[in-house]
Amino acid sequence: MSEAAIEATEAATAGARITIDLAALVANWRDLGARAPNSTCAAVVKADGYGIGIETVVAALAKSGCGTFFVALPAEGARARKAAPQATIYVLNGLFEGAAPFLADHDLRPVLGSMPEIEEWAAFRAATGAPLPSAIHVDTGMNRLGLSLGETAALAADPALREGAAPALLMSHFACADTPAHPLNAAQIAAFAQARRLLPDLPGSLANSAGVFLGPDAHHDVLRPGISLYGGAAVVDVANPMRPVVTLEARILMVRDVAPGATVGYGAAWMAPRPSRIAVISVGYADGFLRAAGSHSGKAGATAAIEGHLAPIVGRVSMDLIAIDVTDVPDRLARRGVFVELFGANIPIDRAAPAPARSGMNS
């Protein structure tokens, strides 16, 4: 059998499939930018473009006019550079010790968050004559990466060191912007304003995805949306205006009748409360669909959808199989070979991955 035939067979017999809507990705980027018309809307593409392919994401956004990208790691930056040769690319996790030559080779800008990083970058530039600028990261209350305000003042008072680091952007990061009423948001806005007064000639960037929705005081010059670009909800307890970008579907392998009191799956975790129809779909935790999405008789799990009809997951998520309750789904829809949506237009990604599992995804 030829390689082409093997690939065709694999596609035809896949248990599950992912669909990526790049038009929705671009629409989300434009929507976010329109919310702050006096700012430049960049794009955070770390973690392999939030799992959908950094080259694909960067190419689509660059073609649509996005000129600034943020990655976490130098290697991600090198991949983004291939997809967007003219873009400005910042490495959020800073200057890894000894990594300056790699950044220079790929025209990447480190986001410097400590005095040792600033000193190393300045020394590298002085020794090599590399013209690359950087960004300065100021901690305003996250207590993660970033200079303290005292260190920022010291940098501002040392013209030689500042010139050596060649900063082109001053940035910080919200900790609680997904909860707009949290008092830390106002404190961080005030602290960042103080940092900008110390380095007044640098453009500023504070707003992550949720920060875009906090209003003009959070916007500054450069927006850095992440999860919102990919369709995720940035703010809790409000309607998500973003379009879904990724859809996960799995194939129904069989449909079976289950009597009241019968159990389904490993551990007999779920017991049928009524005569039920159960569809078994070809996806599981080996595919990255977490076991936490399963259910038992005292706890509801995630939900699937078949042409808009909801079908709850019943029992544990197995390695490559999941059972769903299709008792209330028309027989003509819940049948062998049909693909079931696990997240997408009918099941938002935030419902499939509820807030406790999504912490840290509010870039």
UniProtKB/TrEMBL annotation:
Modified-residue entries (N6-(pyridoxal phosphate)lysine), positions: K46
UniProt-recorded Gene Ontology molecular function terms: alanine racemase activity; pyridoxal phosphate binding
Domain Alanine racemase C-terminal: 245-361
Keyword line: Isomerase, Pyridoxal phosphate
Binding site for substrate: R144, M319
UniProt GO BP: D-alanine biosynthetic process
Keyword Protein transport: no
Reactions catalysed according to its record: L-alanine = D-alanine
Enzyme category, top tier: isomerase
Any matching Pfam family: Ala_racemase_N
Domain of life the protein comes from: Bacteria
Family membership noted in the UniProt record: Belongs to the alanine racemase family.
Name listed for the protein in its UniProt record: Alanine racemase
Organism this protein belongs to: Methylobrevis pamukkalensis
Gene that encodes it: alr
